[in-house]
Amino acid sequence: MTEKISADQCQDLTQCLTIELPCQIVERVERYAKENGMDAAGVLIEALDSFLRKQD
């Protein structure tokens, strides 16, 4: 089955994005993740999503 992908969708559900963050932010993210039973990626995804939703 072949689906047509629209311009606003990725072919995969996830896409890799590599960024460098200041050490203090990484430490805060890791601490928050540990305190809340999450991993750092989940914290960053939620934070970015929350920020971007406020921009719309």
Question: Can you lay out the helices and strands and say which pair or pack?
Answer:
Layout (H helix, E strand, L loop, with lengths): L22 H13 L4 H16 L1
Question: What can you see in these coordinates?
Answer:
The chain has 56 residues and is an all-alpha fold. It has a domain at 23-55. The protein has helices at residues 23-35, 40-55. Helix 1 (23-35) packs across helix 2. The model has no long low-confidence stretch (mean pLDDT 89).
Task: Give a brief rundown of this model.
The protein has 2 helices and no strands. By secondary structure, the protein is mostly helical.
Top keywords for this entry?
52% helix, 56 residues, mainly alpha
Q: Approximately how much beta-strand content do the residues carry?
A: under 5%
Quick check: average pLDDT?
89
Could you give the order of the helices and strands?
Answer: HH
| Class from helix and strand fractions | mainly alpha
User: Which descriptor suits the 3D outline?
Assistant: globular
Q: Sheet bearing the most strands, described?
A: none
Q: Gap between N and C termini, in Å?
A: 34 Å
Determine the number of helices (DSSP H or I, runs of at least 4 residues). Answer: 2
User: C-alpha Rg, in Å?
Assistant: 15 Å
